[in-house]
Write a structure and sequence with these properties.
- The complex is a heterodimer of chains A (610) and B (390).
- With 610 residues, chain A is an alpha/beta fold.
- Helices cover 28% and strands 17% of the residues of chain A.
- Chain A has 21 helices and 25 strands.
- In chain A, strand 12 and strand 13 form a beta hairpin.
- Chain B is of the alpha/beta class and 390 residues long.
- In chain B, the strands form 3 sheets. A 7-stranded mixed β-sheet of chain B has the order 3-2-4-5-7-6-12, sandwiched between helices.
- In chain B, strand 4, helix 4 and strand 5 form a beta-alpha-beta unit.
- The longest helix of chain B has 33 residues.
- The radius of gyration of chain B is 21 Å and the shape is globular.
- The chains are: A alpha/beta (610), B alpha/beta (390).
- At the A-B interface, loops of A face helix 8 of B.
Chain lengths: 610, 390
């Protein structure tokens, strides 16, 4: 255009419009600013909340881009069992999802489940054996399998020893079929085996497996679980014959038991208690769960309680058993198929259960710690008729096989956040430690121990290890450790990441439209009452992909281009690599519109010169 | 090709034929169908233009200013309160010498709330530096819309095409839609001297201190004077190509007239009917239609009215505290005539807020003017309000 601006355009000494006669390049808008925007990835609250340290936001974004295989691989970096956790995890990710404050939380677990179920069509490559050290893992529950999986992927030779005839631990025997179908677990274990992990069943430490043999390994990870059920104490009665709920679940899962009687009372507020009641219901019983606290006090998963109630399980909250009623003629009146629960009356004949005597409870006076232990309400005793009594008061580990020099803390093994015991080379995780009793926490503890073992073995070999503070490995500074960060091979390119969780108020809701969340589909209650078929059917692949598109991608640039669109100085361009944006500080005048408009808090303003 | 279409769609078709490249508008009754039709044309690809949805008329004009600054052929449309909201940026468009074309569907200003026609919305923007062309028929609307782009781009000034709410906007008439290739020959792609260019960045609209500001306004005024010539030149070319012309000022049966009505917009067509009837009776009454309001065609108006004893100006508008705006402008334009040829000007306020202007209302104006002429009283400075309740 410059050529066309001839002298004839100047009339009365001025051009026709207020246009500068010289180029404005001498005073670029960039010279005006004293603060500047920067792209700065933060941590989504779901990631920080995940007991497994999963990059939830990352796989949601890959799914949004249509990269399903990449999304699955990203998930499998941290979680070897997404098909399991997609079904049985409490999903704190969803509880912390920022979208819950907008419309509905993203149905994360259903997306995870969909990705987990993609197997076996898509297989991961077997990692190369790059380390000379061998690691032994005791126990093939979620903690043991996770540790073995991650160590194998770090190049170690790993052998897992399982006392039971089949691998899986609590996943195989503790979680009913209607929540976790056996085939799902089998496929997940196959996935782990495919990483080169050796699995040896029927290998009980101290039994078929000598402790000495274990000590020949370079490191040992102990994850034998907690399977000793806490006993029920009823004043004046021996209750040795009361069946632990965990055993009942195990028998049903193993196909050894198909009946349970009609009147089943389950004592306890644990997940095991709810599982027992729902299992009994499916065997034709009318189960009642007796728990000391209110519904909110229960340790069991709130959704599972809701499902149980809707299926027809009766709960007696703030009630506790104080005795049993028995029949004098046990053999004659024994109800068909009840679990034989016999009580010895002193030295006399054993009597058969006909009812459980209960009393109503209320919160007592606060003790010095402020806790209000429940106390009985006088005169509220009543009888719950019962053929079968199951206890589900929690489980404790059996630590009898451990060498005495390993330090305990109460009834569990004392470990630090890398699973290190006081004994070098000995690591522990899952339910034999103080880890919360969930599958996700166990998988997470196995992963942390894998990092700990890798650090230990590399330091022992005199090699350099990543100079990372534990804080830096934690997602958002408070979440679980990320093995991707430990490995330093994050496939997601991050712009000057900050290890902080992005809160809801840093997002810009002007750029989101309300889209109701898609909830899981379920089998009908009628069908569930008579079938062990999986109750929760999840989402279809398309529904799960639609959920992934609802993700805000909190704190992480997903190339929405709103910064580029809103920049009044055209200072933002797509990066030539196709990932991220380049910001021209020659033209950016520091107005901050991009930071303000960024829907996901992935930009921030910094002072000039910093 | 003849099509039966409403006035709003005549605007849309004009814009389509002119191949506007950017359209930014906000809906308001009675203008809405103009951009509704254009958005359809954009959606189907019949018009290859970028349609920008905005949140207000101020933003609509701001978007047009941005688009026109890049060299794009740009259009918007509005009415009444929407035009008033644009006021600030109307000055900007003109001062930046951007050839934006806008259709204003004349709608009276609220309150009381109204959607019906009068000219106070557009005449309130008299001094913003926009050309204003008032139309009488849907054919004239389409033709003027296309012409407007050519005029605007020749003089680097924005043009407002004005049409009456409902009497044109929602009324169907047969309209001859010119051949697109012919229009392309008439109106080639816009060429601009000054535009935003990232390869040669300049400061636009920056500070103009006292030593230069006045000269810029003088250049704007000179462009307006140039526009008077260009409006006629473009109208002539239109006539050569398409056989229709309108003129800045049109005289109708004014030969030997003792009384001439001056009107604008659709009242002109009613007034033609009245003049025909009166002429049939041998009465010497003629009509002048004011089509171009800015720049004001002083010379043409003088030529049309010099020597006529009595002129009745019918204003569908009012400058409160003064008089009808066309009457005021015409009085000023004729003031310098020799007293012998200077007409007496009689002003009438009529049809505000969409009130019908019927033939008998116009005859009433003629009678009142004759009465005033007969009584020999000096021309009243205040206008007569026609048809109002006592």
């Amino acid at each position: 255009m410059a050529e066309e601006r001839t002298a004839s355009d100047i009339v009365h000494g001025v051009p026709p419009i207020a246009v500068s006669s010289t180029s404005t390049l001498a005073n670029r808008t960039g010279s005006w600013k004293y603060i500047r925007p920067v792209y700065q990835d933060m941590v989504a609250p779901c990631n920080a909340a995940c007991p497994l340290g999963t990059d939830v936001e990352g796989y949601m974004n890959l799914l949004r881009e249509g990269k399903v295989a990449e999304a699955r691989d990203l998930l499998l970096r941290e979680n070897p069992m997404p098909a399991v956790t997609g079904r049985v995890c409490d999903h704190p990710c969803q509880t912390h999802c920022n979208r819950a404050l907008f419309d509905d939380a993203v149905n994360i677990h259903a997306v995870e489940r969909m990705l987990g179920d993609l197997e076996p069509e898509v297989r991961q490559p077997v990692p190369a054996r790059t380390r000379k050290e061998r690691v032994a893992v005791v126990g093939s529950g979620p903690a043991g399998l996770a540790c073995a999986y991650h160590l194998a992927r770090l190049g170690y030779a790993v052998s897992v020893f399982e006392a039971d005839p089949e691998p899986g631990g609590a996943l195989r025997y503790g979680i009913p079929e209607y929540r976790l179908p056996r085939i799902v677990l089998v496929r997940e274990i196959e996935r782990i085996r495919a990483q080169g992990v050796t699995l040896q069943c029927d290998a009980r430490v101290g039994g078929s497996l000598a402790w000495k043999e274990l000590e020949s390994y370079d490191a040992i990870f102990l994850a034998s679980g907690a399977r000793v059920s806490r006993p029920l104490e009823l004043a004046g009665r021996s209750v040795a014959d009361v069946r632990p709920g965990l055993d009942f679940l195990r028998e049903v899962k193993a196909g050894e038991r198909r009946t349970v009687g009609r009147r089943v009372v389950v004592v306890g507020g644990t997940d095991t208690a709810v599982d027992c009641a729902r299992t009994a219901l499916r065997l034709g019983a009318e189960p009642v769960v007796v728990c000391q606290g209110t519904r909110a006090d229960l340790s069991a998963n709130a959704e599972a309680i809701e499902e149980a109630i809707r299926e027809g399980v009766r709960f007696e909250f703030q009630v506790w058993p104080i005795g049993v009623q028995t029949s004098e003629h046990p053999e004659e009146e024994e109800p068909l198929e009840a679990i034989r629960t016999m009580f010895a009356e002193g030295d006399g004949p054993r009597a058969r259960l006909t009812g459980v005597e209960c009393v109503r409870m209320r919160p007592g006076e606060p003790d010095p710690s402020g806790a209000r232990r429940a106390v009985p309400v006088q005169g509220t005793n009543f009888i719950l008729p019962a053929d079968t009594l199951l206890t589900a008061l929690g489980e404790e580990p059996d630590l009898g096989f451990l060498p005495p020099e390993i330090t305990r803390k109460g009834y569990v093994v004392k470990v630090d956040e890398y699973g290190r015991t006081n004994h070098p080379g000995f690591f522990a995780g899952g339910d034999i430690t103080g880890e919360p009793r969930t599958v996700a926490h166990s998988l997470g503890s196995g992963k942390r121990a894998a990092i700990g073992i890798d650090r230990y073995l590399r330091e022992r070999a005199g090699e350099a290890v990543p100079a990372l503070e534990t804080q830096e490995l934690r997602l958002g500074g408070t979440g679980n450790l990320s093995i991707t960060r430990w490995r330093g091979d994050d496939p997601i390119r991050r712009a000057s990441p900050v290890n902080e969780v992005v809160p809801y108020d840093q997002l810009n809701m002007a750029h989101f439209a309300g889209v109701p969340g898609k909830t899981d589909r379920h089998r009908s209650f009628e069908e569930r009452r008579s079938s062990f078929a999986e109750a929760n059917l999840g989402l279809t692949t398309n529904e799960a992909l639609a959920e992934a598109r609802r993700c805000f991608n909190c704190g992480v640039c997903n190339m929405c281009e709103l910064c580029l669109i809103f920049c009044p100085d055209v200072a933002i361009k797509r990066h030539p690599s196709g990932h991220g944006f380049s910001l021209s500080y020659k033209y950016c005048k520091g107005c901050g519109v991009c930071v303000e408009e960024c829907p996901r808090g992935a930009m921030t303003m910094t002072r000039e010169g910093l | 090709m003849k099509k039966v279409m409403m006035g709003n769609h005549a605007v849309s078709w004009g814009v389509r034929l002119a191949r506007a490249e950017v359209i930014a508008a906000y809906p308001i009754t009675p203008q809405t169908q103009v951009v509704e039709e254009l958005s359809e044309m954009c959606a189907t690809g019949a018009l290859k233009a970028r349609f920008i949805k905005v949140e207000s008329e101020h933003s609509a004009m701001a978007a047009c200013i941005g688009a026109a600054s890049t060299g794009a052929r740009t259009f918007t449309a509005t009415s009444a309160q929407g035009l008033a909201l644009m006021h600030e940026v109307l000055h900007w468009a003109a001062g930046a010498r951007l050839p934006i074309v806008m259709a204003d569907i004349n709608r009276a200003m609220a309150p009381g709330w109204t959607v019906w026609t009068d000219q106070n919305d557009s005449l309130s923007q008299r001094d913003t530096g926009w050309l204003q062309i008032y139309c009488e028929s849907n054919q004239e609307v389409l033709d003027s819309t296309v012409q407007a782009f050519k005029i605007a781009e020749k003089v680097d000034l924005p043009v407002m095409i004005v049409l009456d709410a409902f009497y044109l906007s929602h009324t169907y008439e047969p309209v001859d839609v010119p051949d697109a290739a012919e229009v392309d020959a008439f109106l080639p792609k816009r060429v601009t001297r000054y535009k935003l260019d990232t390869n040669d960045p300049r400061s636009f609209g920056a500070l103009a201190p006292p030593p230069v500001y006045m000269e810029m306004r003088l250049r704007q005024q000179e462009a307006m004077e140039e526009a008077l010539r260009v409006v006629d030149e473009v109208d002539e070319e239109w006539h050569r190509r398409f056989g229709r012309r309108y003129g800045a000022v049109e005289s109708y049966r004014t030969e030997g007239a003792e009384l001439v009505l001056v009107v604008s917009g659709t009242i002109a067509s009613t007034a033609r009917y009245v003049v025909d009837q009166l002429r049939e009776k041998g009465e010497k009454v003629g009509l002048v239609k004011a089509r171009l309001f800015r720049p004001f065609p002083t010379a043409a108006m003088r030529k049309a009215l010099a020597g006529v004893p009595h002129v009745a100006v019918l204003d569908r508008n009012i400058s409160p505290g003064h008089c009808g705006i066309f009457a005021e402008e015409i009085r000023a334009a004729l003031y310098d005539l020799e007293p012998a040829s200077r007409p007496a000007i009689h002003g009438y306020i009529i049809g505000l807020g969409g009130r019908d202007v019927k033939p008998e209302n116009i005859i009433d104006c003629v009678d009142r003017t004759r009465e005033a002429a007969r009584s020999g009283k000096p021309t009243p400075r205040e206008d007569v309000w026609v048809g109002v309740q006592p």
